[in-house]
Amino acid sequence: MTLPSSIEQDPILLDGLTEIGNIGAAHATTALSKLIGRCIMVEVSEHYVCSTQKLPEVLGDPEQQVVAVYLEAYGAGKGGMLLMFSQDTATSLVDMMLSRPHAVRELDDTDRDAICEVGNICASAYLSAVAKFSGITMVPSPPGVSVDMLHAILQYVSAMAEEDSSELMVVQTQFVHGESSYFGNLLYLPDQGTIRLLAERFRAV
Q1: Which H or E run contains 186?
Q2: Where is 85: in which H helix or E strand?
Q3: Could you give the CA distance from residue 134 to residue 80 in angstroms, rounded to a whole number?
Q4: What share of the chain is helix, strand, coil (3-state, %, to 5)?
Q5: What does pTM read for this prediction?
Q6: Residue 75 to residues 71, 83, 158, 201, Cα–Cα distance (Å)
Q7: What pLDDT score does 18 carry?
Q8: Contact (Cβ atoms closer than 8 angstroms) between residue 29 and residue 47
Q9: How far apart are CA 145 and CA 133, in angstroms?
Q10: Which range of residues forms the domain containing residue 32?
Q11: Is residue 5 part of a domain?
C-alpha cells in the first residue's frame, strides 16, 4: 500500500495529528501551570492544514509585528515548530506569569526569556506527543525567540520547509486563566519521512 505523502489528502493522518494536538495541549497545561504556580489552561480551538505559500493569507496582516518562539526536532522524526503571538498577547502572558500589572510595551530581555519558555513548553509538549505515539525519537533544539513583522517570520518558516514538503499543521491555541483568554498559533512542519511514518502508525491503530 502506498501511503499518502500529503497531510491534507489523508483524513486518517489529519485526524491523528488533530488528536496529538489535543494531547499536547493537555501536557502543556500541566507544565505551564506548574511553572507559573497557578492554573492556566492551554486549549486548541482549531486545527487545519496549510501550505507555506498560503500562510500570509490565513494569519492576517503581513505588516503586523509578532513574537515567535521557534525550535527544530532532531532524531528519527524531524521537523520544525513555531509558536506565534501578537506582541500584546506576549506581554499579557509574561505579566501574568510574573504577577504584575499588564502594560503595553516593547519586550525587554526578561520578557523574551519568559515568552520563550512558554513557547518551549507548548512546542515540546506537541513534539513529545508526536514522538510517543509514533514510537520514534524526537529531540527538540534549544528554543529561540524573534520579534519581527509577520512576513519576515514566515520567510523563516518557508526556509525550514523542504522542497517536497511545504505543508504544515496550524494549531490555533488559546491560553485561558480565569476570565482572561490569550491566543496564539502553533505551526508544526514535519518532514516527508515523519509524515509517512505517522500515516503508517495511524493506520495500524
Answers
A1: strand 180-190
A2: strand 79-86
A3: 17
A4: 45, 30, 25
A5: 0.86
A6: 14, 21, 21, 17
A7: 86
A8: no
A9: 28
A10: 11-204
A11: no
The answer to whether the beta carbons of residues 125 and 25 sit under 8 Å apart is yes
Give dist(CA 84, CA 198) in Å, integer.
Answer: 25
Q: Is residue 34 part of a domain?
A: yes
Three-state SS at 58: helix
Give every residue of the chain whose pLDDT is below 70, as ranges: 1-9, 162-165, 205
Instruction: Flag whether 159 is in a domain.
Output: yes
> Which residues have C-beta within 8 Å of that of residue 3, sequence separation ≥ 6?
10, 196, 199, 200, 203
Radius of gyration for the alpha carbons in the chain, expressed in angstroms and rounded: 16
DSSP 19-48: HHHHHHHHHHHHHHHHHHTS--EEEEEEEE
Question: CATH number, domain at 17?
Answer: 3.40.1550.10
Distance in angstroms (rounded) separating the CA atoms of residues 76 and 69: 23
Instruction: Write the pLDDT tens digit of every residue in 40-54.
Output: 899 988 888 888 778
Would you say residue 3 lies in a domain?
A: no
* pLDDT number for residue 165: 61
pLDDT in tens, 128-146: 888 888 788 888 899 999 9
How many domains would you assign to the chain? 1
